[in-house]
Amino acid sequence: xxxxxIEVGDAPNxxxxxxxxxxxxxxxxxxPASADPFEADRRLxxxxxxxxxxxAASEVLTSDAWVVDxxxxxxxxxxxxxxxxxxxxxxxxLERLGGEISAGRDLAYSYGAARWTAADGxxxxxxxxxxxxxxxxxxxxLFEEIFDRPEAG
Length: 153
Hints:
Elements: H1 37-49, H2 53-60, E1 61-69, H3 78-87, E2 93-101, E3 107-117, E4 123-135, E5 138-148
Parallel strand pairs: 1-5
Antiparallel strand pairs: 2-3, 3-4, 4-5
Helix pairs in contact: 1-2
């Protein structure tokens, strides 16, 4: 996920952050077997493909989520996240390649391939990674990073 560097004492890491992403514990029980985090991932991928990703992401992101895109510091507040989502392309083609769910069924991660068109019209490709947490009776998005893959040189 996010490599923010090594912290030394109170010194901030390369993003100027003094604390790493914190996973807030939830209720003692995890998701029921019928609640599939990868279905939530699929719905979000579909929304991005249909041009409705900003709304769909806003509905599943937690209030303490982090959103990271290539070349930007993590967005870690609702206002920063709103602005980061607004700056993203209208559409992504996202294909889940894998992921796992914790034994307690309270955390899951997913990752996959990403393709989009940049503002300058250039086709981009890369990957995404997400951390899902079972909260408030549903899978909520705690972390999302979409990053482009450097061109072979």
